[in-house]
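Tokens for chain A. Residues wanted.
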């Protein structure tokens, strides 16, 4: 039985739990931008943050697995998950952060958030999932809401920066599609730990060459710990757990809650101002999530 068939076998409450878990994941990822900003103000840099993010998270996850005597995946799932972490996660991270140095941040973010459309397309091609009117409405609402929240910073950006941003979106889409298959018979916690370890090993090699620049304050270190434990460990575990319960296209659209959380925290924690376009964008994304939750709850149980 493939992963798509297993999802259809789940009950309504289990599928709604999947929606909730993806929403928790999106909120956890959304908080990362705020934590990262605090860490950067403490003197660290993106490469060091990525190294600490995955290394600390890996140590935390491995400790839990050891305490609970949990087994790592084996065989093909293990190889797939290692590639997802060491190639997929690292590749999209480097593409995204490099794109930010070559094009306006708003443009890069919007291009990244094309990934729900790419996931929907890939799910249609590989899983033969029909594209319903509800799916198209939810996709339009999530993309439109993201554009309103993120906004465009002006300027067209360098061509390479645009290409890298789209590359990051494509890599994330493939990561989600591959992940939905890879975790079908694997524990979500063990799968997450494997991905995080693989990413941590690669970023360790990168900082071995480029060097590290640790935070200079305790506040900066707290922010780094929050990135590792909340925006990495919790975010990835809940995403994989949710992906076992709902289809990847819906999971990717629910994940657009991320910029809503980022903006909300920026207002609360950093004192940034809220504008009407951002409010409207947030409402549109929440409407898309509500539609998808209703769709999951009403899905037939075969």
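Reply:
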């Amino acid at each position: 039985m493939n992963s798509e068939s297993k999802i259809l076998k789940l009950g309504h409450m289990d599928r709604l739990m999947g929606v909730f878990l993806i929403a928790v994941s999106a909120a956890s990822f959304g908080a990362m931008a705020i934590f990262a900003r605090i860490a950067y103000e403490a003197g660290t840099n993106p490469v060091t943050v990525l190294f600490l993010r995955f290394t600390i998270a890996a140590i935390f996850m491995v400790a839990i697995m050891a305490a609970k005597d949990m087994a790592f995946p084996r065989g093909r799932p293990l190889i797939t998950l290692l590639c997802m972490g060491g190639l997929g996660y690292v590749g999209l991270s480097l593409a995204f952060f490099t794109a930010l140095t070559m094009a306006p941040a708003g443009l890069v973010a919007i291009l990244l958030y094309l990934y729900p459309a790419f996931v929907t397309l890939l799910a249609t091609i590989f899983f033969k999932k029909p594209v319903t009117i509800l799916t198209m409405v939810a996709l339009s609402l999530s993309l439109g809401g993201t554009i309103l929240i993120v906004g465009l910073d002006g300027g067209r950006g360098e061509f390479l920066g645009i290409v890298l941003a789209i590359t990051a979106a494509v890599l994330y889409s493939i990561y989600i599609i591959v992940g939905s298959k890879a975790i079908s018979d694997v524990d979500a916690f063990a799968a997450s730990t494997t991905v995080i370890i693989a990413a941590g090993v690669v970023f360790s090699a990168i900082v071995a060459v480029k060097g590290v620049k640790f935070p200079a304050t305790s506040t900066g270190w707290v922010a780094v710990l929050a990135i590792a434990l909340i925006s990495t460990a919790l975010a990835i575990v809940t995403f994989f757990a949710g992906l076992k319960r709902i289809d990847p296209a819906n999971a990717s659209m629910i994940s657009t809650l991320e910029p809503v959380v980022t903006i909300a925290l920026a207002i609360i924690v950093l004192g940034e101002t809220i504008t009407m376009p951002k409010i409207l964008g947030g409402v549109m994304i929440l409407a898309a999530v509500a539609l998808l939750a209703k769709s999951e709850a009403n899905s037939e149980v075969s």
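The chain has a mean pLDDT of 86. The longest helix spans residues 12-41.
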